[in-house]
Specification:
With 275 residues, the protein is α+β, with helices and mostly antiparallel strands. The chain has two domains: 47-141, Sandwich (Jelly Rolls); 148-274, Jelly Rolls, CATH 2.60.120.10. It is 16% helix and 40% strand. It has four helices and 20 strands. Strands 11-12-13-20-15-18 form a six-stranded antiparallel β-sheet, with no helix packed on it. It has a five-stranded mixed β-sheet with strand order 1-4-9-6-7, with no helix packed on it. Strands 2-3-10-5-8 form a five-stranded antiparallel β-sheet, with no helix packed on it.
């Protein structure tokens, strides 16, 4: 009988006891959420870049590994490790979540033709939560880069590896502004990044280049490339081509309108080629 009474009292008093336990305050809840956002993923289990299925290898040699990176809307990459420094070129408007292991997620919006430099040494996931396709060409730099710096006007106001706005756009609005074919963007101890525009018969030519260069065609590009006076390739958006040192190069816009491309020049490749 005593046992039955005790059980009855326990059932009756349990709600009253629970009511005395304070509920977590909104600030505590926000704190817990903030901790989760600050470190949403860990580096364990990250795959190498070459094993991430959205990264398709286009070209590689002793200087560079080039990937065509395409991520459909509302998709995500695998967690992947960037051990090497790299330069990337954005193709089309980008609205992407960059979730770096151990850091807060970053919401990136980049315009078509934007370039950036990243030092590497991190793992991340890219997500297209906004429903916009993500596309870029990533050029991993196989050698240590040493010191890095932006070139050209307002170099300190741009993200590292970003190109300044070309005066070529101003030339269409104001005839007094000269056409600027090559815009210097960025350099390290090992490489230099330039953006080139060819239009209206203004071809790009280099008779005796002293260093090898990686060419990446930008959006809407229609290029014919000649090396050593002979046809080498037709290039369009996201196509790449290695331009060797010491071989004359010429690029023509096939439609005679406008094409843009970036050049990543490897400073010590000329010395290596001469050996």
């Amino acid at each position: 009988m005593k046992i039955a009474v005790l059980l009855t009292l326990a059932v009756v008093l349990a709600p009253a006891v629970a009511a005395q336990v304070p509920a977590p305050s909104p600030s505590d809840v926000r704190k817990d959420i903030q901790i989760e956002v600050q470190s949403p993923i860990k580096t364990e289990g990250a795959v190498p870049v070459k094993a991430e299925p959205h990264h398709v290898l286009l070209f590689q040699n002793d200087y560079v590994h080039v990937y065509n990176v395409t991520l459909p809307p509302l998709d995500a990459t695998l967690l992947h490790q960037h051990d090497l420094p790299y330069i990337y070129l954005t193709l089309g408007t980008t609205d992407v979540i960059n979730a770096v292991a151990g850091k807060p997620e970053a919401h990136l919006t980049l315009e078509d033709g934007s370039t950036r430099y990243a030092a590497g040494g991190f793992a991340h996931i890219a997500r297209t939560d906004a429903g916009i396709r993500f596309h870029n060409v990533t050029a991993e730099l196989a050698h240590p880069q040493g010191s890095t710096r932006n070139l050209g006007v307002k170099s300190g106001d741009r993200p590292l590896g970003g190109c300044p706005e070309s005066d070529a756009a101003g030339a269409k609005r104001n005839d007094q502004v000269p056409f600027e074919q090559m815009v210097a963007c960025f350099e390290s101890d090992e490489v230099r990044l330039d953006m080139v525009t060819i239009e209206g018969g203004k071809d790009y030519e280099e008779a005796a280049p002293r260093a090898a260069t990686l060419l990446i065609a930008m959006s809407n590009a229609n290029l014919e490339v000649s090396l050593g006076g002979e046809h080498a390739a037709f290039l369009h958006e996201a196509d790449v081509l290695w331009l060797p040192a010491g071989t004359a190069r010429k690029l023509v816009d096939l439609l005679g309108t406008k094409s843009k491309f970036v050049l990543i020049t490897f400073k010590d490749s000329g010395v290596a080629a001469a050996r």
